[in-house]
Amino acid sequence: MDSNSLPRWVEIYESLMNKFKVTADHILKLSSDERAKLISRTDEFREKFVLDIVGEESIEEARTWIKNLLKQLEEVKKELKLRGVTLTRELKSFMEDPLLHLKKKVFIYTFQLFSGNISLYEFASRASAAVRTSLRTNMRSLYQTWVFLALLKKITEGGRLVYPEHGYLYLERSAKQKTGIIPPNCIAKSVDGRTLSFFIEAPRPIAWEDTSDLKRIWGLYVALRPDFLVYGGSVMNIVDLNNSPPIKRPNIIVECKELKDWYKRARDLRGWWSKAISAEEWRALWLRGLIEGLAEAIGVRAKGDFKRKEERKGLRVKEYKLVQIYKKVYNPDLMVLITRTEIPSDIKREIENYGLEVYDNISFEDSKLSDVAEELLRYGKKEEIGLTEVLYEILGKRYDKISKESLNKALALLVRKHKNEFLELLHEVS
């Protein structure tokens, strides 16, 4: 290959290898000046590599999507008087700087390359896969999160969040799964009192201790995970180990597709139908991953034979067939497919004929989701009005500005002041 046609990152690699003669034994023996130059040039190397793999236009597209999501985040925080919205660490990092985030994905591979533990070909293969996967995953998360927030904003217009009650909306996995439950990301109430519970990318595994526990909850590990499960009313835990899949049947499933050619793509379903493994085998596999991951990070080879007796096979299915599988497996009352771009008429017809409601060409225009929000609210439930609802009805939006301590003091004084009337009412309702 002519040197003029080499990618810039390859030129940097060859220049550094010739200049510093870097090897696994000598990489830490460089002088401070040499180390500083090496760090600076390897940073440039990583950036040129990432841009060569995904292109400047992909980074700019990511930044545009990030702006759309940040705008939606601010609108939802303002509408619902939220103190904050927490995102996954991965998405948060990507949103702060998508190019820097992707450069981080090749850091270890870069170290392995310059210390001589992998070849340039191996680096290109492994690092490019890591970059593409990270970009694809985060772009998917960006659009999925935008859709979720846009729907939430429309459903709660004039209403409020019932849960969480402390002013923070969590769009990440809940640590409460360690307690053996799968709680909602939020419970929303519309202006007319209809309530919906939202679960993002559920079901997820819950805590277990031994083989008997693992067998009981194995279905949660291998279950298919649609983008959103939605239940009418206030549902605080969807685990139901007597069911298959082991969760309560959802009223609604919402699936989002961000790519223009999503229906042409396929996905490998692994382990969906597989038998549960033992706790001992689980620990052995976990240890294998730990040892191999550490060995890869420090550039050595792990000793030992960790091969399993039986490899779990996968099933490759087209994405537009997968959404139909979701409907078949979970049997919701309503399944909604939301796509950023327009779907070819024949694919759209097949999906609709299977019983899904399709809303395509949504882009980042939340006005196009008004009908979806109305569809979801058809399954919302009006529940008994509790103390919080009564206070909200009386105080309106002032309720969000008053501290719980002030409310508790006022209510205690009110009960003391009207003690006899309170006791009479308590007797009536009992």
Would you give an account of this structure?
With 430 residues, the protein is an alpha/beta fold. It has three domains: 155 residues, no CATH class; 173 residues, no CATH class; 39 residues, no CATH class. The protein is 50% helix and 12% strand. Strands 2, 4, 5, 6, 7, 10, 11 and 12 form an eight-stranded mixed β-sheet that branches. The longest helix is centred in the N-terminal third of the chain and has 36 residues. The radius of gyration is 26 Å and the shape is globular. The termini are far apart.
N-end to C-end Cα span: 87 Å
Main beta-sheet strand count, sense and barrel state: 8 strands, mixed
Structural class: alpha/beta
- Mean pLDDT score, rounded? 82
Task: Report low-confidence residues grouped into runs of 5 or more.
Answer: 294-303, 305-309
Gyration radius, rounded? 26 Å
Query: Helicity range of the residues?
Result: 40-55%
The backbone outline, from C-alpha atoms, is globular
Work out the number of β strands: 12
* Overall domain count: 3
Strand content: 5-15%
Instruction: Determine the number of helices (DSSP H or I, runs of at least 4 residues).
Output: 15
Order of helices and strands: HHHEHHHHEEEEHEEEHEHEHEHEHHH
